[in-house]
């Protein structure tokens, strides 16, 4: 099994990347989070997950910027009814830390906002992964009041759709929420836009 692929980034798009290593070009399916972190050119390293599609016996390679993102992907596809494309959609819509918070809070509504996730699937993800993913999230959740986690996720999604860097946006949002817990969703977004 391949653990990661490192080489020259030949091509990238929001859904795939091509990395050439030792004369072989690998096509990797990626999330938007990974796409946002890939350089425009030069060397890149992506952690991999190999998936055999049983319908047409094809091999699909998924690539992830971090081992943590790959681990979350693997946990998601372990849930009955969640395939690789759905897991990739989840990782394109939310950061790994957002996914952990949603699962720790048992926030079905936030998962249902993701394309391809219905209520039953969202509930199954939370039930199956709560103990696996939610561990260690208590400290993070104590810092941001439960009331504001949904607003934070919505603000992050809105700001990311504007093309802002998710990591920077996330840090700014956390700082803003900790300073003033009474902000509305619109106010949070405006505050971030002022500080970027």
Topology readout:
Elements: E1 4-12, E2 16-21, E3 24-29, H1 32-37, E4 43-53, E5 58-64, H2 67-77, H3 84-93, H4 96-105, H5 108-112, H6 119-133, H7 138-143, H8 146-161, H9 166-179, H10 185-195
Parallel strand pairs: 3-5
Antiparallel strand pairs: 1-2, 1-4, 2-3, 4-5
Helix pairs in contact: 2-3, 4-6, 4-8, 8-9, 8-10, 9-10
Examine the coordinates and then state which fold CATH places here, giving the name of the CATH topology of the largest domain.
DNA polymerase, domain 1
- Strands of the largest sheet, in order across it? 1-2-3-5-4
State the low-pLDDT regions, or none: 138-148
Domain count: 3
Strand content: 15-25%
Looking at the structure, what is the overall shape? Answer: globular
Mean of residue pLDDT values: 84
**Integer-rounded radius of gyration:** 18 Å
The CATH superfamily of the largest domain turns out to be 5' to 3' exonuclease, C-terminal subdomain
Please count the helical segments. 10
Q: Residue share in helices?
A: 40-55%
> In CATH, what is the class of the largest domain?
Mainly Alpha
Question: Would you identify the CATH architecture of the largest domain?
Answer: Orthogonal Bundle
Could you give the distance between the termini?
A: 41 Å
Q: Could you state the order of secondary-structure elements as H and E?
A: EEEHEEHHHHHHHHH
Which structural class is indicated by helix and strand composition?
A: alpha+beta
User: Sheet bearing the most strands, described?
Assistant: 5 strands, mixed, barrel
Tell me how many strands there are.
5
């Amino acid at each position: 099994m391949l653990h990661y692929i490192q080489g020259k980034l030949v091509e990238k798009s929001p859904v795939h990347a091509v990395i050439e290593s030792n004369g072989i070009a690998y096509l990797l399916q990626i999330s938007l989070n990974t796409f946002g972190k890939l350089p425009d050119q030069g060397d890149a390293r992506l952690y991999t997950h190999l998936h055999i599609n049983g319908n047409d016996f094809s091999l699909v390679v998924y690539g992830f910027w971090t081992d943590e993102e790959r681990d979350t992907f693997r946990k998601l596809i372990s849930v009955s009814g969640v395939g690789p494309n759905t897991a990739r959609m989840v990782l394109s819509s939310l950061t790994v830390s957002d996914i952990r918070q949603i699962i720790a809070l048992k926030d079905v509504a936030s998962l249902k906002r993701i394309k391809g996730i219905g209520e039953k699937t969202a509930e199954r993800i939370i039930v199956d992964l709560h103990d696996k993913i939610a561990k260690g999230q208590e400290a993070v959740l104590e810092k941001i009041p439960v009331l504001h986690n949904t607003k934070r996720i919505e603000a992050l999604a809105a700001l990311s759709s504007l093309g802002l860097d998710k990591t920077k946006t996330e840090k700014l949002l956390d700082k803003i929420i900790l300073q003033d817990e009474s902000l509305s969703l619109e106010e949070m977004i405006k505050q971030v836009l002022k500080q970027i």
